[in-house]
Design a protein that fits this description.
By secondary structure, the protein is mainly α. Helix content is about 80%, strand content about 0%.
Length: about 400
């Protein structure tokens, strides 16, 4: 009974502080993710009011399923068809350079091949949510840069999901065989194809049928059941459950019920409870004191996160008709790391592949990248420059 009470109190504190600190961050024109992480740091390493536990970890994990499901719900391939090939090329270059930079830090500075692989994958993907939020804040989301950024982020998302699945396979079995890599790649492509075509139509019709029932909350229960079923099947196919959650969202994105009914209800559950709980809990096990002794490591990781994306996504955009300022804006918009870096680092920590000190360094890079992105965008945005001169 004591464990139940402490568990309930831990959830209450994490949710309460995460939402309050998230609101403060938003009012400071910073992503709420920074506030949620700050809440976890305060409750865990500083005040020590909430301690890590296996059950709390498993419970908080629902947050990332909800997050990727919501990302999938907002992902419409029709909006970026014209940029999908160029965006994929830009995303691939940026991801390769970011992986190599992270790998070099881990393999040569820290002297561990395994750490290099983990850091390379952790720094590989841009945070779609932070990129979109930052572009919206400067009024560039519907511009040429914004449309390309969305295409790059979508391709980046697929690469990150594939990399995450490969990492889980490698940490679980100690090796990644070529045929398993090919099988995984085909499984991901196959799942995407099936969900976008037949799966999307089937789920859309099923939702329409369930809409006729008298239970007004049926359009909450059925989408949740679909998410968990697809996540379960994804695990058995060899793809991570988070991939299944994302694809389940994509399958529902074209339904006429998604925007007016499903998405608002899922956002209430996700952003009101599970998502802030996950990101607050992710900071509970941080080792704050290690930041002072590992300042150089944080600086190297930040450079490995920023420079490859600016070069890979910004500079190479010149070959797709972007001028100098648009290249800078696109490159900067790809800087922020977020959910995938945290997830990958947390998984690696669970497997014992990284230390608490390294995990803390990665989280520090995530927070710094989230803070500097909107500031750099405003510095290079022509509209902001004009206003600032008046």
């Amino acid at each position: 009974m004591v464990m139940e009470i402490s568990f309930l109190l831990a959830i209450a504190l994490l949710i309460l502080f995460a939402k309050i600190f998230g609101e403060i961050a938003v009012r400071l024109r910073i992503s709420s993710l920074v506030g949620e992480i700050a809440a976890g740091i305060l409750l865990g390493p500083i005040l020590k009011w909430v301690a890590p536990s296996d059950f709390l970890f498993q419970f908080s994990w629902f947050g990332i399923l909800f997050f990727l499901f919501l990302i999938g719900l907002s992902t419409k391939f029709d909006d970026v068809k014209s940029n999908i090939y160029s965006g994929s090329a830009i995303a691939l270059i940026g991801c390769i350079l970011a992986f190599l930079a992270g790998f070099l830090v881990g393999n040569y500075y820290l002297g561990s091949f395994q750490t290099g692989i983990v850091l390379g994958i952790a720094l590989l993907s841009t945070s779609t949510a932070i990129t979109i939020r930052s572009l919206v804040d400067v009024g560039e989301f519907h511009s040429k840069v914004g449309r390309m950024a969305l295409a790059v982020d979508m391709a980046d998302e697929v690469l990150a999901i594939l990399a995450l699945s490969l990492l889980i396979m490698w940490l679980s079995f100690g090796a990644v065989e070529i045929w398993k890599v090919m099988s995984l790649f085909l499984a991901v492509i196959g799942l995407i194809y099936v969900i976008i075509t037949a799966g999307s139509k089937f789920i859309g019709r099923a939702l329409t049928v369930f809409q006729r029932m008298r239970d007004q909350e049926i359009l909450v229960s059925i989408p949740l059941a679909i998410v968990f079923i697809v996540a379960f099947l994804s695990e058995h196919v060899g793809v991570a459950a988070v991939t299944g959650a994302f694809l389940a969202g994509v399958a529902m994105s074209n339904s006429p019920l998604t925007e007016p009914v499903i998405a608002p209800k899922m956002k209430v559950i996700g952003y009101g409870f599970f998502i802030p709980l996950f990101f607050a809990y992710s900071a509970i096990i941080l080792d704050i004191t290690s930041l002072y002794t590992n300042f150089l490591l944080v600086a190297l990781l930040l450079a490995a996160a920023v420079i490859p994306k600016i070069i890979g996504c910004g500079f190479f955009a010149r070959f797709f008709g972007f001028n100098s300022n648009e290249q800078k804006m696109l490159g900067i918009s790809m800087i922020p790391r977020g959910e995938y870096a945290i997830i990958i680092s947390q998984i690696a920590l669970t497997f014992g592949a990284v230390t608490n000190q390294l995990y803390t360094a990665v989280i520090a890079v995530v927070v710094i990248s989230i803070i500097i992105t909107p500031l750099l965008l405003r510095m290079h945005d022509p509209k902001f420059s004009r206003y600032s001169k008046r």
